[in-house]
Amino acid sequence: MKAWHFTTTNEPLVEADIPEPTPGPGEVVLDIKAAGLCHSDVGAMTDPGWLALIPHRPIVIGHEIAGVVARVGEGVTEVAVGDRVGVCPTASEGAPGYARDGGFTYQHRVLAGDLVPMPEGLTFELAALGTDAGMTSYHAVMVQGGLRKGDKVGIIGFGGLGQVGARVAVVNGAEVHVAEVNEAVWDRARQAGAVSVVKDVAEWAGQDFDVIVDYAGFGTTTADAVAAIRRDGRIVIVGMGRLEATISTRDVILKQATLIGSNGGTKEDVAAVYELLARGDISPEVTVIGFDDIPRGLDDLRNHRVTGRVVAHIAD
């Protein structure tokens, strides 16, 4: 079957023919219906620092996967042939696309315990992005952020993650404000329920936010967030636009601020996002492309030509 192989940093994906997988004990094989493209894929293709996470190459990348169970291995009772499922990428046997073959192909072998059932009416494209973009966004707001109804919440960055995180906060009763440099998406942020939108996080100084989630992570964004939270406020760092920040320890100490990282999430987070997506409470902006367009889609992500998420439709 056709697949897109990653070989090493700064080399194009290679179209390859690979054998169809066979499920072992406790495993299933999915017919992949949709696979999401992620900035993490772009990072792996352009930054040698990612190679430590991908020890075996060539490998089929792509870690946002949704499909239909095609075959089941010995001892599998959780799912059956024909079930519609997503794959939790914080997988027990290693993340797809990094530790083992991922989703930029037509079939995927995975432990049955790593699957999340899709609610009725949820499309495969939304289910795919929900496995990582949805999970990561939800986990940052609800779990690491500890959001409570009525909280004043700042969302930094209204891209593929921020648009989901903002809606999660709104749906759960928060007063949401957005900081986003791209004014072209401001109307969409307001439509998502943001009370206000600003271009620079520095404009929030002294406004006593309960929680700020930094989906951009450009150093100055995190530093300025410290000036914007209340005493005992919390800053959740998700984005890795820059890998360091200079922060006022004075403000951190006097405010008893909590700075916490957020990386991925759990099957429970994926399931919660699936329910929100299925109900229409979250409707992220999605560009759907074909299997043959995956390299171009990644190039569009790399060059910031995409608003929201990109998902490849793999098969009907």
UniProtKB/TrEMBL annotation:
The keyword Oxidoreductase is assigned to this record: yes
EC number: 1.1.1.1
Cofactor requirement: Zn(2+)
InterPro entries: ADH-like_C, ADH-like_N, ADH_Zn_CS, ER, GroES-like_sf, NAD(P)-bd_dom_sf
Catalytic reactions on record: a secondary alcohol + NAD(+) = a ketone + NADH + H(+); a primary alcohol + NAD(+) = an aldehyde + NADH + H(+)
Keywords of the record: Metal-binding, Oxidoreductase, Zinc
CDD domains: hydroxyacyl_CoA_DH
Residue ranges of domain Enoyl reductase (ER) in the record: 8-312
Keyword hit for Metal-binding: yes
Gene3D superfamilies for this protein: Medium-chain alcohol dehydrogenases, catalytic domain (3.90.180.10)
Transmembrane segments: none
MF annotations from Gene Ontology: alcohol dehydrogenase (NAD+) activity; zinc ion binding
UniProt cross-references to SUPFAM superfamilies, sorted A to Z: GroES-like (SSF50129), NAD(P)-binding Rossmann-fold domains (SSF51735)
PANTHER family in alphabetical order: ALCOHOL DEHYDROGENASE 1-RELATED, VACUOLAR PROTEIN SORTING-ASSOCIATED PROTEIN 11
Family statement drawn from the similarity comment of this UniProt entry: Belongs to the zinc-containing alcohol dehydrogenase family.
Protein name: alcohol dehydrogenase
Organism this protein belongs to: Georgenia muralis
Record lineage: Bacteria, Bacillati, Actinomycetota, Actinomycetes, Micrococcales
